[in-house]
Amino acid sequence: MGGAELGQIFVNAVLLSGILALVALGFSLVWGIMNIVNLAHGSFIVLGAYITFFLHELLGVDPFLSIPVAMVALFTLGWGIQRGLINQVIRAPLLATFLLTFGLEILIVNLINYFFKADVRSVTTAYSGTGFTLGSVRVPYIRLGALGISLVLVALLAWYLRATRVGRAIRATGMDIDAARLTGVKVATIYAATFAIGAGMAGAAGSLLSMIVPFDPTLGGGYTQRAFAICVLGGLGNVANVVIGAAIFAFVDVFVGARLPSLSRAVTFAILVLLLILRPQGVAGKRV
Amino acid sequence: MKKAAAIAGFLALLALLVALPRLVSSYKLLTYTRFLILALMAQGWNFIGGYTGYAAFGNVAYFGIGAYTTGLLMIGKWHVPFFPALAAGALLSALVAILLGLPILRLKGHYFAIATLGVAEALSQVADTWDSVTEGSTGIDLPLKTEGEFFYYTALGFVIVGLLCTAAFSRSKLGNGCVAIREDQDAARMLGINTTLFKVIAYALSAVFAALAGGLTAYQNIHVTPGDFFKIDYTLQMIIATIIGGAGTVLGPVLGAAVFQLLSTYVWSKFLELHPTILGVIIVLFIVFLPRGLMTVLGRKRQRGERPFRMSDLLANVRAHRVT
Amino acid sequence: MSALPSPVPRIPGDSILEARGITKKFGGLAAVDGIDLTIRRGEILGVIGPNGAGKTTFVNCMTGLEKPTAGTIVFNGQDITKTPSYRIGRLGMARTFQVVKPLRQLTVRENVATGAMFGARGSERSAAQARHEADEVLERVGLADMRGRTATELTILDLKRLELAKALAMDPQLLFLDEVMAGLNQSEIEKAMELILRVNRSGVTLFVIEHVMKAIMGISDRLTVLHYGRKIAEGNPKDIVESPAVIEAYLGERFARRAEAAGEENALIEPGTFLKAPPAPAGDTLLEVKNLVSGYGEVQILRDVSLEVKDKEIVALIGANGAGKTTLLWTISQLLKPMGGSVHFAGRDITAARSDEVVGAGVVHVPQGRRLFAGLTVRENLMQGVYLRRDTERIEQDLERIFSLLPLLKERAGQLAGRLSGGEQQMCAIGRGLMSRPRLLLIDELSLGLAPLVVDSLLDLITEINREGTTVLLVEQDVQVALEHAHRGYVLETGRIVQTGPAEELLDDPRIRQAYLGL
Amino acid sequence: MKRTAPVALLAFALVLGAFPALAEDTILFGAAVSLTGKTAKEGEYTRDGYNFAVDTLNAQGGINVGGKKYKLAVKYYDDESKSESTAQLIEKLINEDKVTFILGPYGSAPSGTAAPICEKYKIPMIEANGSAESIFSKGYKYTFAVLSPAKLYLKGLIDLVMSKDKSVKTVAVLGENEPFSKEVASGAADYAREKGLQVVYQELYPTGTQDVSALLTNIKGKNPDIVLGAGHLQDSLLIVKQAKDLGVSPKAMGFSVGPSSPEFRENLKSNADYIFGATQWTEALKYNGDDPWKTPKGYATAFRAKHPKYGDIAYQVAESSAAVIAFSRAIEKAGSLDPAKVRDAIAALDIMTFYGQIKFDSRGINTFKPMAIEQLQPDGRKYTVFPSSVAEKDALYPMPAWDKRK
C-alpha cells in the first residue's frame, strides 16, 4: 500500500485506540480491583448508547453533551447492581461471578430489545462525517473528539485514583482488602463505587460509540470481548496499561484488517494467546 | 438393602430412557436429544473446569473441530461412515488439546480463560475463510439422516459412557490428582503429582467429549457452518449446565444440563418475546442462591452424616459469599 | 511415652541427606544464606530459630518447591538439586506445611489416599488399595473417626494431624515437619510428641521445625539453630539451649547475660541492667476484653481471654507462636467475628461492630507483616491512614509530624511501599496507624524480622507517642523488647491468659523463660 | 364424582382451548422467525408480512380447497436469530403443533437449516427471506423461495450505471463473510467482469465487524468508479458513515441490503442521499397480478391501512406476503392438503402477483422475477430507478463528492 494509505491507516488506528481504551477502562478497573470479569460490561455500553440516542432524537441534545448524563445514569445503575447482586456472590468461586454477570448481560440486552425493539440506530448530527485533511489523510471530527474525550476520561480516572481519598481507598482495597479494613475502609461501599465507576465509564464509551457505529441491543457482546482482550494485552493494575493494551489491539486490528480483512480477528487472537504464553502479566502490566 | 433400592431405581430410569422414543413426539425426543448432547459437553467440561478447576472458555473449539472433521470425512471423496468419522474427530480434538494445553495450561484463572477463548475465536475464523477445505462461511452439508431415535440413542449411550467415565475418573488416581491440583497446586506437587501431565490429560478428555457432541450435532443438523459450530454460546451453555448442577461432581453436569435445557425450552415455548430475559433472571437467581450448584442440595454424602439441605441454607449461601 | 518401640539401630556416619551451601535469595536479600546441613539416617533433627530465620524456605528448597539460588542437595547419594518436586516426593521425601495445605473439598480419607497414591510406593498401589492404606495411616495418627469429614470441617489440631497423615501416606524415608505443634495446648502437644516419636521409631528420619521448645527438646536427637538465614549452632539439645548465642537470638542480649549470670552461684546482677519502664499512669479502663472466644471457621484459637488496657498505658502481650496473639488483635479490630465474650472500648460495646466502626472509635491496628499497600507510595500509604478523618486541616501537619518522627519515611515518601526494607516498612505501617490519630494503637509483632538497632528506634518511637497520650497494646514474641518498654504485661498460652502483672516482675519471672525455652 | 365432574369439564375446555388451530376448517402454517437477536427487526417484517396476507385471505372467506373453504392460521416461534434454534423449532412446529405447511424463517442461514427438516418430514416450505443458492444446491424437493437469488441483487445496479456512463471502468466489492452476502458479492463481481469492468477490490470482512476504515482506506487508494457493499443493514450504514469519514467518494455507491429499509435514512439523514439499494420489490413497480391486491400500490395502501406505523414498506414484508399467496394458490390448485400433492402444485406454479412473477426453477428458486434498484434522493424520498420500464424517476448520477455537498 502507498505512503498516503499507510498514513491514513495509522491515523485510523490511533483514533480507534482512543475509543477502545475507554471501552476497556471500566472493565479493567472492576477486574483489577474486585477480580471480577464483568460480562455485563457490554450491556452497560449499549445502555449508554441508547441514552445518548434518545436524548438526541427526542430532546435534540448534542450527543457530546449527553455523555455526562449517560455516565451518571450508568453509575447509579452500577451501584445498584453491585450492592444488590454482585456483592452477594463476590466471594463465591471465580466462575460464579462470571456467570452472574453473564446472566445480567442476557437480561439487560433482552430488556432493551423488548422495550426499544431491535431497530438499528445511530446518532447522526450536522457535523457527522465532517473533518479536515492533513495532506492526503482525512481526520473526521467526531472520531477525533471521541479520542479526545477518551483520553480526558482516562486521565481523569487516573487522577481520581491517585489523588482523592476514595480513589486511594479503591486502589488500597484492591491490593490488600484486610489492611484496607484496618484503615477504616468499608469494603462493600468501595466495591460499589468501583463497580459504579466502571459502569459509568462504559456509559461514556456507549455515548461515543453511538455516534461512530450503528448499533442495536446486541452491540455490547463484541465490545466486552474486546475489553477482555485489551486488559490481557495491556495488563491490569494501572490505568496507563489500558491505553497501551487498546493501542496494541487497535493497531493489530486495523493493519491486519487492511491486509487480510477476513482473518483480522483470528490474527488478533493468535497474537493475544502468544503474548499470554510469553508474558502472562501483560505487555506493560505487572503480574496480578 | 438401600443399595438394592437404588439399583432398582436406576434400572427403572434406564428402562424409561430406553423406551422414551416410543412414548414421546419426535420433537420432544429432539429436545431430549439436545439435553443429552449438552450433558455430554458439560461432562467433558467438568473434567477440566470442575475437577481440575481450570476455567476453560474455548471448549467450543473442540465441538467445532469434531463437527467439521466428522462432516468432512463423511462427505467429499472419502464417504467414511459416521462412527469412524466421529472417532477421528474426537482423536483430532484430543491431539489439538494436548498441543495447546502444554503451553496454555501454565496460565491461571482469567488468563487461562481468555487464552482458550482466543483459540476458539481464531479457529472459528480460520474455518470461516479456509474455503478450499471448509467451504468457508457457506458451510458443509452432511448426508440427510432422519431417524430421531438414532441420535437419541447415540447421545444416550455417550452420556451413560460419560457417567461411567466420570465415576471411574473421580475414583481413579487421575481424578484424585486433578482435584488435588484444583485445591492446591503446591500441595499437589509435594504429594508427588505430575501436575502438568494431569492437567493436559483432563483437558484432552474434555476436548474428546466436546468433539463427540459436535460430531453428533453436525450429523443431526446436517448443515454445518462456522457461525453455528464455533459460537461461544456452546461454551457458555456447558459451563452454565455444569455450574448449575455442581462442578466436580459425577451427576452434576447431567443434572444441570437437564435443568437448563428443559427450563429454557419451556420458557421458550411459553414466552414468545421475553424468554431470553427470563432465562437471564433464572441464571442470576441460581448463581446468587446456589453458587456451588444443585448437588450441594441433593448430593450430600450420607457417610459424612450431614443433615439434609434446608431452605435456610440458601440465605446462608448468600451470607457466606457476601462482603460487608 | 512408655510403650514406644525401641529405637532403630543407627549406622554412624550414614547420612540420608547432604545439603551444601544452600542459598535462596528473594530479590536482593537472602532468606537462606549458605547453609550446610547433614541429616543422619534414622535421627530426629530438631530445627529452631526465631521467625524469619529461613527455616521454612530451607525446607522449600530441600523439597524442590523452590529452586535454591546456589548449593547442592544429595538425597540417598543422588543429586536432586534440579529434580522437580513431584519426583522428589516419589523418591521418598515428604513434608508438612506450616500453613496447612489440606485439599479442602476432599474428605480426610481422600486427602490421605492422595498421598498414598502418588508417594514413594504409589505406583504399586491401585486407587482402592491407596484408600485402604489411607485408613491405616489415619488409625496411626488418630484421625480414623474423622475420615468421612471434609478437610474444611476439621479443627486446627486435626488439620495438623491430617497434614502429617498425608505426608506419612507417601511412605517417606525422610520427613520434614514444619511447626506441626504450633497452636496446640499442653495435652495436645504431649500427644503430638508421642506420635512423632512413633513415626521415627517406625524407621522414618525426621527434620522437625518447632517453636514449642518443650516439645523439640523432648524429641530431638540433635538440634540445629538457624538465625537470619545462617546456621548459628548445632549439636546436643541441652548444650544448645544453654548456649548464650541461642538464648540471645531468642530473648535478647541482656536476657542472655542474665542467663549466664544465673548459671554462676548467687551472682549479683549489676543494677541498671534493665531499663525500667515509666510508672504506669492511673488512667481508667480504655479497652476491656471479657472471656473472648474466637477462631477460624470451626477452629477455636482463643479459648477464653480476658484482659484490660488502661488509658495512657503500654501493655505488652507476649506468648509463643500460635498462642493466639494475632487472633486476639484480629478479633478486637473485628476482622474476625468473636464466637463468644465481649469487647468494650471506652465504655462502648464494640463486640459486634464493623471493622470500620472500630477504627472510627479510635482503635487502630498495625498488623503483623505490616500489610502495607505495596503498589502505593509511602506518602499514599500514610494518607490512607486518614481515610476516616474529617479534620482535613490538621492532616498536613500530622503528616509533617510523622516525617519529623521518622525522617527516613520523608526521604522515601515518593517510593512504592513494596520497595522498602523491612524496618522502613514497619515504620511506614506504624506511621499509617498514627495518621488515624488512634486512642489505642494495637501493634502486632513490632520486632519481627528486624535488626536490633531498628527495633530499638521503633521502641523509642512507641514510648514517645505514648508519652503524648496514645495508649498501646504491644504484641511481641521478643519478651525483652516487649516487657522493657511496657507498664504491664499479659502472657498468652494456647488461647488463654496464663499470667499477668507489672512488666518488670514478669521480666524477672523464670516461668517466662520456661514458657519460651522449655527449661 | 360430584367434585371431579367440573374439573373434568374444565380440563376438557382447556384441551379445546389449547388447540383452536386444529379446529376443522383451518389450515395451520408454522413459522420460526427471529423476534430477538441480530435480525429481530427483519423477523418482525417477516411476521407482519405473513400475518397481513393471512388476515386478508381470511377476510375474503379463506381459500377454497376441493370445494371446501378453509381459513388460514400461523403458529410462530422465535429462533433468536440462531439457525440451530430454527431446526429445533421447525421440528416442534411439525411434530407438536402439527402444522400442515411451513413458512420460511428470516435469513439464508436459518432457511438453510430449516430446509433439511422439511425434507425429512416431506412438508413443503415456501420461504421469502433466504436467497442464498447454497440452500438450493442440495437438491431438496420441499423448499421453495419466492425471492430472486442472491447473485442477482446488484446486477441491476451495474447495468444502470453502465447505461448512464460509458466511461466507468472500475468496481470495488466488499461483503460480509456470511452465506448470503458472500453470494451477492461474488455474483456482483462476476457480472461486473462479464460486463468488461475491472474489479479492483474484492474482500470479505467477518460478521460483526465494527470498523471498516482499513478496507475503505484500501478502496480509496484504488479510487474505483463504483463501490458495492454486500452485507446487512448495520454494515451498509457503517460503510456509508466511514466512507464519509474518510472521504471515499465514488461515482456510485450501492448496497444489497439496507437502503430499501426506512431505517437507512433515519440513521444517515442526508448522508443517505444518492445511495443505491437493491430491492426485491417496491410499491412503485408496475405489476398487475391475480391476488387480493393486484398491484404493488394496492398492496401498499391496504397494508398501510392496517399498519399506520409503517412509512414505506420494506420488501421483506411484501415478499413474505407473497410466500403466503403462493402457498394459497398452490393449495387451491392441488385441491387437497396432502403435502406431496401441494408440493407438486408449488413446483408447477406460475402466477403473476403484486410481487411479480412467481415461478420456481428446478432447484426451487424464483429466478424469473427481476430485482429492482432504488435510490435515495436529496428530496428525502426513495425512488425506484431501475428497471427503466418501471422507473419512477431518473437516477441521479454521479454521486457528488461528500465535501462538495451543501
Give an account of the 3D structure:
The complex is a heterotetramer of chains A (288), B (324), C (519) and D (406). Chain A has 11 helices and 2 strands. Chain A has 288 residues and is mainly α. Chain A has a two-stranded antiparallel ribbon with strand order 1-2. In chain A, a hairpin with a 2-residue loop joins strand 1 and strand 2. Chain A is globular. Chain B has 324 residues and is mainly α. Chain B has a single domain, classed as Orthogonal Bundle (ABC transporter involved in vitamin B12 uptake, BtuC). In chain B, 75% of the residues lie in helices and 1% in strands. Chain B is built from 16 helices and 2 strands. The longest helix of chain B is centred in the middle third of the chain and has 27 residues. Chain B starts with a helix and ends with a helix. With 519 residues, chain C is an alpha/beta fold. Chain C folds into 2 domains: 195 residues, Rossmann fold (3-Layer(aba) Sandwich), CATH 3.40.50.300; 233 residues, Rossmann fold. Helices cover 38% and strands 24% of the residues of chain C. Helix content of chain D is 39%, strand content 19%. Chain D contains 12 helices and 15 strands. The longest helix of chain D has 20 residues. Chain D is globular, with a radius of gyration of 22 Å. Chains in contact: A-B, A-C, A-D, B-C, B-D. Chains B and D meet through helix 2 and helix 5 of B and strand 3, helix 3 and helix 4 of D.
Task: Describe the structure concisely.
The complex is a heterotetramer of chains A (288), B (324), C (519) and D (406). Chain C has 20 helices and 20 strands. Chain C has 519 residues and is α/β, with parallel strands linked by helices.
